[in-house]
């Protein structure tokens, strides 16, 4: 169990200070696109409310599902949330074409049949898919490189929404840019739909080592880094003080076994996203349970062993070696 | 004093920091330990069940044989603080606002009736001010995330705070349940109140 020096509330005070600055600019008529300030006693969709939601996902597994049956299997296995997709990343890869948000009717069916949170993906930069999912009432939106990007240059300004967002990142600069845009949660990009955890490992290690190097830098070098990352210097200092990302950070992309999940937790992930790994295997219900058990108990190799014994390697998803993919087939390079 | 925190999933790290600060404020020497296996429960003087997903926490605790042990200890008087998912775990009666009754592994010892996702989904999650003067705290800004509500209490259970007539914190002997998250708030009043029960 990690013990931090700064509490959630103190981190939030920092974000409110940043928001205040935006409000000052807005009050002077220099900004028009931000949502109305709320001043009454009960506030929905504030930064604190959006940043709090992923805290309750920590130590948990979010599972990709495409229908109600899979969602129920995920809930019964102990998933902390489900991510509804039209196609699993493995099938997105196979089918080609433009991958878009899932059918709202299916998302709604899933929302009405399980008690855990329901998330869904939108294309990078696609404001209107996000507006539609917010109207539908999903618990979190994933602005995801697994779908075909709608905007090659920009991401969504997530401060405009009351629903929290999760974004992918391959390095610290990307992660801090997404947090600055209002992401409430970060996940490693990995290489989705491959069943190969190597890229997720790489991204987690890059983020960790970049944070360590920030900590050992002088203030003026950190200022230079902030410019290089294109983020406010204050976010860099907050990251240094915390010794970690200022929001919850999950691992994703290629996780297929309990040991994969435990490895990512050991590397410092707060939790796990499992995509094709479960429902592209031949033992989804047992595997889902085993991955939940291993994620919650990653510090204990004996329990991870027990989880690993629950599944059979011969039933794992086939997997794709990253080296066999052409550069244009990589999903992780979308949206930097 | 040894305070255990169920640490599979959820806001256990935030509870650890808040407990540490509460111990410091009260000038009590104490140790905070993660509880995952039945043996971790030995020598614990109080236990915290954090916010998270009650289904996940219940399923994993049952699988590792912790749930029955925990039930027995709390039943025989172990001071317990359950927040949000923790309050659901403690309640004798649980249903979901949308899906109705669903079976899930629970502790079920506290005389409270709880409705999961009472205020709605994440879109309806909110921050608000609760009055903690009943336990010697002040007004505090707290968050309610997909929060449950305590809609009924009976027996020895006492309602401590309400928000618009809905109970948000209740106490029954050694058990405290909150539907908000004191671990994500600036106040340590709830944790101090809990530690004082442990100290008795």
From TrEMBL, chain A:
Q: In which pathway does it act?
A: Cofactor biosynthesis; pyridoxal 5'-phosphate biosynthesis
Active-site residues, Swiss-Prot/TrEMBL: 121
**Which part of the chain is the PdxS/SNZ N-terminal domain?**
48-252
Q: What class of enzyme is it?
A: lyase
E.C. designation(s): 4.3.3.6
Q: Which reaction does it catalyse?
A: aldehydo-D-ribose 5-phosphate + D-glyceraldehyde 3-phosphate + L-glutamine = pyridoxal 5'-phosphate + L-glutamate + phosphate + 3 H2O + H(+)
Name the job this protein performs.
Answer: Catalyzes the formation of pyridoxal 5'-phosphate from ribose 5-phosphate (RBP), glyceraldehyde 3-phosphate (G3P) and ammonia. The ammonia is provided by the PdxT subunit. Can also use ribulose 5-phosphate and dihydroxyacetone phosphate as substrates, resulting from enzyme-catalyzed isomerization of RBP and G3P, respectively.
Similarity comment: family membership: Belongs to the PdxS/SNZ family.
Return the protein name.
Answer: Pyridoxal 5'-phosphate synthase subunit PdxS
Task: Supply the source organism for this entry.
Answer: Sulfurisphaera javensis
Whichever gene encodes this chain, its name is pdxS
Automatic annotation (TrEMBL), chain B:
Catalytic function, reaction form: aldehydo-D-ribose 5-phosphate + D-glyceraldehyde 3-phosphate + L-glutamine = pyridoxal 5'-phosphate + L-glutamate + phosphate + 3 H2O + H(+); L-glutamine + H2O = L-glutamate + NH4(+)
GO MF entries: glutaminase activity; pyridoxal 5'-phosphate synthase (glutamine hydrolysing) activity
Q: Which Pfam families match?
A: SNO
Mention one GO biological process in which this protein takes part, according to its record.
L-glutamine catabolic process
UniProt xrefs under SUPFAM superfamilies = Class I glutamine amidotransferase-like (SSF52317)
Functional pathway: Cofactor biosynthesis; pyridoxal 5'-phosphate biosynthesis
**Active-site residues from the entry:** 84, 181, 183
Keyword tags? Glutamine amidotransferase, Hydrolase, Lyase, Pyridoxal phosphate
- The EC number(s) this enzyme carries: 4.3.3.6, 3.5.1.2
* A cellular component annotation (GO) from this entry: glutaminase complex
Task: Family membership, please give it.
Answer: Belongs to the glutaminase PdxT/SNO family.
Recorded hits in PANTHER family, A to Z, give: PYRIDOXAL 5'-PHOSPHATE SYNTHASE SUBUNIT SNO (PTHR31559), PYRIDOXAL 5'-PHOSPHATE SYNTHASE SUBUNIT SNO1-RELATED (PTHR31559:SF0)
Job description of the protein: Catalyzes the hydrolysis of glutamine to glutamate and ammonia as part of the biosynthesis of pyridoxal 5'-phosphate. The resulting ammonia molecule is channeled to the active site of PdxS.
Q: Subunit structure of this entry? A: In the presence of PdxS, forms a dodecamer of heterodimers. Only shows activity in the heterodimer.
The protein's name: Pyridoxal 5'-phosphate synthase subunit PdxT
């Amino acid at each position: 169990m990690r013990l931090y020096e700064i509490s959630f509330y103190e981190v939030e005070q920092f974000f409110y200070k940043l928001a205040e600055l935006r409000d000052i600019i807005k009050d002077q008529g220099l900004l028009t696109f931000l949502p109305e300030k709320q001043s009454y006693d009960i506030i929905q969709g504030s930064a604190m409310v959006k940043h709090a939601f992923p805290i309750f996902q920590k130590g948990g597994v979010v599972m990709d599902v495409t229908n109600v049956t899979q969602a129920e299997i995920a809930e019964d296995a102990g998933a902390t949330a489900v991510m509804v997709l039209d196609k699993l990343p493995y099938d997105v890869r196979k089918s080609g074409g433009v991958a878009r948000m899932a059918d709202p009717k299916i998302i709604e069916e899933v929302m009405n049949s399980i008690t855990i949170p329901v998330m869904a993906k939108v294309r990078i930069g696609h404001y209107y898919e996000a507006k539609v999912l917010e109207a539908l009432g999903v618990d979190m939106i994933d602005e995801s490189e697994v779908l075909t990007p709608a905007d090659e240059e920009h991401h969504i300004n997530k401060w405009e929404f009351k629903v929290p967002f999760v974004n992918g990142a391959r390095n610290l600069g990307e992660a801090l840019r997404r947090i600055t845009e209002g992401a409430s949660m970060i996940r490693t990009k990995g290489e989705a739909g491959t069943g190969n955890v190597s890229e997720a490992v790489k991204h987690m290690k890059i983020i960790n080592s970049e944070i360590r190097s920030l900590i050992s830098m002088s203030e003026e070098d950190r200022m230079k880094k902030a410019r290089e990352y294109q983020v406010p210097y204050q976010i860099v200092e907050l990251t240094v003080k915390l010794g970690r990302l200022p929001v919850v950070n999950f691992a994703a992309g290629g996780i297929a076994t309990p040991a994969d999940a435990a490895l990512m937790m050991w590397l410092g992930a707060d939790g796990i996203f499992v995509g094709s790994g479960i429902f592209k295997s031949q033992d989804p219900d047992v595997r889902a349970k085993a991955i939940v058990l291993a994620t919650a108990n990653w510090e204990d190799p004996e329990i991870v062993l027990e989880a690993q014994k629950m599944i059979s390697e011969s039933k794992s998803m086939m997997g794709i070696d990253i080296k066999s993919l052409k550069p244009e087939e990589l999903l992780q390079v979308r949206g930097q | 004093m040894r305070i255990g925190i169920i640490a599979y999933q959820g806001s256990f790290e935030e509870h650890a920091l808040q407990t540490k600060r509460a111990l410091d404020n009260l000038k009590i020497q104490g140790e905070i330990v993660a509880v995952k296996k039945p043996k971790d429960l030995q020598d614990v003087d109080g236990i915290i069940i954090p916010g998270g997903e009650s289904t996940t926490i219940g399923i994993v605790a049952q699988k590792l044989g912790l749930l029955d042990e925990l039930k027995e200890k709390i039943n025989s008087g172990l001071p317990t603080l359950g927040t949000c998912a923790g309050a659901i775990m403690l309640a004798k009666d649980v249903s979901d606002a949308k899906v109705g009754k669903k079976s899930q592994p629970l502790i079920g010892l506290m005389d409270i009736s709880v409705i999961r996702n009472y205020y709605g989904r994440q879109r309806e999650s909110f921050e608000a001010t609760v009055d903690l003067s009943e336990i010697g705290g002040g007004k505090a800004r707290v968050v309610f995330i997909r929060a449950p509500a305590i809609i009924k209490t009976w027996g020895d259970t006492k309602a401590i705070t309400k928000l618009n007539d809905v109970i948000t914190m209740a106490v029954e002997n050694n058990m405290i349940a909150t539907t908000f998250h004191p671990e994500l708030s600036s106040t340590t009043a709830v944790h101090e109140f809990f530690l004082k029960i442990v100290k008795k």
